[in-house]
Design goal:
The protein is mainly beta and 516 residues long. The protein folds into two domains: 4-68, Immunoglobulin-like, CATH 2.60.40.1120; 74-203 and 210-278 and 286-515, Porin (Beta Barrel). 1% of the residues lie in helices and 52% in strands. It has one helix at residues 70-75, and strands at 4-8, 16-19, 34-41, 48-55, 118-127, 139-149, 153-163, 169-178, 187-196, 206-220, 224-236, 240-255, 258-265, 291-294, 297-300, 302-314, 317-329, 332-336, 346-349, 354-358, 362-376, 379-393, 407-423, 428-437, 458-466, 473-481, 489-492, 498-502, 507-515. The strands form four sheets. The chain has an 18-stranded antiparallel beta barrel. Strand 10 (206-220) and strand 11 form a beta hairpin. It is globular and about 80 Å long.
Length: 516
């Protein structure tokens, strides 16, 4: 009762929507001959879809649709008992998302896991991603699947689909890796993304990207560890732009507890490594591509990051000292508020209320100190201090179309505290962090930070709660970023209304995920 039935077809000028009666029946009359698609949705149920339904002149069709509960969908997957020491962390970790720079992990916490031939996950999330173009879908479904081949190779598929009242978006990634006898592990991946703008000024233009990435890591004796690779990325949107994204690092093990590392990166690292990649929006707007618009042409952010750091372990404490240099051209800044792309310099997301704006070049050096301590088996505390350059608006209340000349590199201090752990009885995994900046800033201080001190700006928290009463390994997810909506810099929009440039827009996402 009360389910929404939507009928789509090329013969219709607009979608026909009807509702089921108390017995679950629906009826739609007056349809022209042709091919149709029918979708049924209802609260607390998964959508049902029937495609390519042919209607002949004068004919009547009875189309039965069945909507399933989430429990029904879970029971379709092979169930397995949840393992308390499952080290896979629910999702695949691709080579492109490996942290390039990090503090040493505690070897005493590593647990040898039995290798499973097939691993997979499925997630159903809702809420605003709040991070810009293509992130407007209010519901998304993500999946990952990995299979071991001959014990030395792995193939994987992962992807996501955003849908609902917003504009649909989709991503699909295929990867392959192979471990050689000498210890190196070359990998290859191809990623396709597609999402559409709902802005009529852009004529519903579709942004499509194709990325081909390759990487390898190898060890030279027990002293030197090398990681390197690159990604060739091309984007089609009101024109075409192409970029090569190389990365690399060299770790010199001075002693069993001391590592000196040099790293080079051209992409901002994703914060999803420790949260699980099934929490990422379908379009991966929090990672790549970082794109804005100028003169109705796409602008791809081009970044270069170099870093030298020294990591030292002292019992349950890790300490990292780092010096870095960043140069980021055509910086993709994030804003929030109702704007239009009519002038050709804003890339709006009509549904999430955010937009991308091309900023000046960020060119600055900086330093970082990270102190991480394992307080207990279930609780870890991290303190991160950084001093470096950010982009900031030096003139307040300037019109947005005139803001670019007033965006300049400024020196800022940032201090972050992060706690993470697991609740023993309920096995709840959680992360809570707060990153403070001593003055306004449009970009994060130390935006390439990939150490354990990495965290979202301002007050954020994340929770994964296993649901033992459900079949298989099922979890509830809650992800909140910038809960207090801090760091909003006001500017005057084109219509005279106030809009804001932000480091991170406030967003709330939640849903369910299960693995097999």
């Amino acid at each position: 009762m009360g389910a929404v039935v939507e009928i789509f077809g090329p013969a219709l000028r607009q979608t026909v929507t009807v509702f089921t009666d108390a017995a679950g029946f629906y009826s739609a009359t007056g349809l022209l001959p042709g091919l149709y698609t029918i979708k049924a949705t209802a609260p607390s149920f998964l959508p049902a879809l029937r495609e390519r339904i042919g209607l002949r002149p004068g004919a009547t069709l009875n189309i039965n649709l069945t909507v399933k509960t989430l429990l029904d969908a879970v029971q379709l997957a092979p169930a397995r008992a949840a393992s308390d020491d499952d080290d896979w962390k629910w999702t695949l970790r691709s080579a492109a998302n490996r942290p390039i720079l990090r503090v040493l992990d505690d070897p005493s916490s590593a647990v040898e896991q039995p290798d499973r031939q097939i691993r997979g996950s499925l997630s159903l999330l809702a809420g605003s991603a709040g991070d810009g173009y293509g992130s407007d879908s209010d519901v998304s479904t993500g999946f990952t699947l990995e299979r071991s081949i001959f014990s030395d190779s792995r193939v994987g598929m992962s992807g996501g689909l955003g849908y609902g009242e917003g504009v649909p978006s989709a991503i699909l990634r295929a990867s392959y890796s192979h471990r050689l006898p000498n210890g190196s592990e070359p990998s290859l991946a191809i990623t396709m993304r597609r999402f559409t703008s709902g802005d009529p000024d852009l004529h519903n233009a579709t942004l499509q990207s194709l990325a081909l990435s390759a990487g390898d890591d190898l060890s030279v004796g027990d002293v030197l560890e090398l990681k390197f690779g690159s990604e060739l990325q091309t984007i089609q949107f009101l024109g075409r732009v192409t970029a090569l994204r190389p990365y690399g690092s060299a770790d010199l093990h001075l002693s069993p507890n001391t590592v000196l590392e040099y790293g080079y990166a051209t992409s901002v690292p994703s914060t999803r490594a420790e949260k699980g990649f099934d929490t990422t929006p379908a379009d991966l707007s929090e990672a790549n591509p970082r794109v804005s618009m100028a003169g109705f042409a796409p602008k791809l952010e081009r970044a270069h990051h170099q870093e030298l750091n020294l990591s030292r372990r002292m019992g349950n404490t890790n300490l990292q000292l780092a010096a870095f240099y960043d140069r980021v051209g055509d910086t993709a800044l994030t804003g929030t508020g109702a704007v239009s792309s009519a002038s050709g310099f804003l890339l709006p997301d009509m549904y999430s209320g955010t937009f991308s704006f091309t900023g000046k070049t960020l060119d600055a050096s900086g330093m970082r100190v990270v102190l991480q301590r394992k307080l207990s088996a279930d609780l870890t505390a991290t303190l991160d201090y950084a001093f470096g350059g950010t982009l900031d608006l030096v003139k307040p209340d300037v019109p947005l179309q005139n803001a670019s000349p007033w965006i300049m590199t400024q020196r800022r201090h940032a201090l972050a505290a992060k706690f993470s752990g697991t609740v023993p009885r309920s096995h709840t995994r959680w992360i809570a962090s707060y990153r403070w900046v001593n003055h306004t800033a449009l970009t994060p201080v130390d935006m390439f930070n990939a150490s354990p001190g990495q965290s979202d700006p301002f007050l954020s928290f994340f929770v994964r709660q296993p649901l033992p009463c459900m079949p298989g390994h099922m979890e509830a997810i809650l992800d909140v970023r910038n809960l207090l909506a801090q760091g909003y810099v006001p500017v005057m929009g084109q219509d005279g209304q106030t809009v804001y440039l932000v480091q991170a827009a406030r967003s709330v996402r939640g849903g369910l995920a299960f693995t097999f």
